Amino acid sequence: MTASQLPFGSIENEFLRVDYLTTIGPRIIGLYAKGVEDNIFAETPDIHWHTQHGEYYLRGGHRLWTAPEDPFYTCPEDSVTVTAIEDKVILRSDVDASGLEKEISFRLDENCVALTHRVTWHGKEPIELAPWAITQLPLGGVAILPQPDAEGLQPNRNLVFWHYSQINDERLELHDDLILLHGRPSDQAFKLGYYNSHGWIAYQLGSVLFTKRFLSQRNHGYPDLGCNAEAYVQDSFLELETLGPLSILNPNESMTLEDVWEVSIGEHITTLEDARRISKQLSLK
Fold first, then answer.
1. What span, in angstroms and rounded, lies between the C-alpha atoms of 210 and 227?
2. Cα separation, 204 vs 142, whole angstroms
3. How far is residue 127's CA from residue 222's CA, in Å, rounded to a whole number?
């Protein structure tokens, strides 16, 4: 059964509509801007794989995981409790087979969605994890990843490549002020991560600019060799990923990660200068 065939609910205002699953999750499956017909999020109904806890269906949209990535904590999404309070929705899972309870709460504010991701540990011993918020987007656009401003004499940037990433991948553009990752299909997956001091990453698809904003905390330890932002692309979608600092959780303790999504309608990116103009505008906000 695909995400679109599962029961879902919606919350909307004059700018946006957000669709979420109501029987399993927590999972947001749709983001729609008024005046734009298509789902801003990717839909991946045919992608699934076996885990030690059962079959996992990717489904698409937006999900909450934990880092560093460990197959033990990838569990099939089970039942979810939905609480709607005025303009806010809370999606809370049962405790999964690995001992994690996940929650995504969100509310609309004009053309923005403010989200809080919460992970609670129900195991018997302390554990070190980081919250990891993953948003899947359709191919055909370009991700904009801002680089740190040049200053001082000390190194101020890191680029982390996963083992399957080819540094000469044609979808990757490296520039001193920004990185562009094009959403083009390939059997070869590519993933890049880094510490993002600007606190935003974005994806331009047609006339839609989707931006994820997050808190950047320089003096905290992050997973994946110090990454708080990552991007992944393969044959059917591109992901924008944000990560919180690593935390040691004792039984029944929680950690949170906040994102703010902003959806703007504007011009297409056709040149590097277009991307630089958008990057400067986003960094000024």
1. 21
2. 5
3. 15
Mean pLDDT score of the chain, rounded to an integer?
A: 94
Q: Would the pTM of this model clear 0.90, i.e. be above it?
A: yes
Per the listing, tokens 């409790």 go with 81
Backbone angles phi, psi at 93, to 5 degrees: -80, 165
**CATH number reported for the structural domain that contains residue 25 in this entry:** 2.70.98
- Domain encompassing residue 256: 3-284
**Chain-centre distance for alpha carbon 86:** 25
Taking the alpha carbons at both ends of the chain, their separation in whole angstroms is 41
3-state secondary structure 157-188: CCCEECCCCCCCCCCEEECCCEEEEECCCCCC
Contact 214, 146 (CB under 8 A): no
Closest listed residue to residue 83, CA positions, set 31, 133, 22: 22
Q: How many CA atoms lie within 13 A of 231 on its CB side?
A: 27
Contacts of 70 (CB under 8 A, 6+ apart): none
C-alpha 71/C-alpha 98 separation (Å) is 10
What single DSSP character describes residue 234? Answer: -
| Dist CA 88 CA 76 (whole Å) | 26
Q: What average pLDDT does this structure show over 281-285? A: 88
What are the pLDDT digits (tens) for 213-254?
A: 999 887 789 999 999 999 999 999 999 999 999 999 999 999
What total of structural domains would you count in the chain? 1
